Hints:
The protein has helices spanning 68-71, 76-79, 93-100, and strands at residues 3-17, 20-36, 53-55, 61-64. With 110 residues, the protein is an alpha+beta fold. A hairpin with a 2-residue loop joins strand 1 and strand 2 (20-36). Keywords: Nucleus, Transcription, Transcription regulation.
Amino acid sequence: MSVIHITGRLRLRVSLSHGRTVPSQIMGLVVVAHALPPPTINEVRIDCHMFVTRVNMDLNIIYCENRISDYMDLTPVDIVGKRCYHFIHAEDVEGIRHSHLDRKYPSMGM
């Protein structure tokens, strides 16, 4: 089993109101994932603004802490059994699709 540490932020749409930017809508969640080396310890320190999910190799969510409800309008029942792709914002789909393409790079001329 691999351990992946994911950090991220909510992506907000902002609007101008009286000359200042104001968050107006949550657009999605932007995350960065880092595979951790096989640990000799089994836990990653959980910050107060984090929740734990477990995802299998098919990117199906198999576990989620109740704390998700503190940060999103979701409960573990809403996400367990679904694939991570289900939660990608529509404006990010093309970027995700593009990152999954099998690219053919030109040879280096060697």
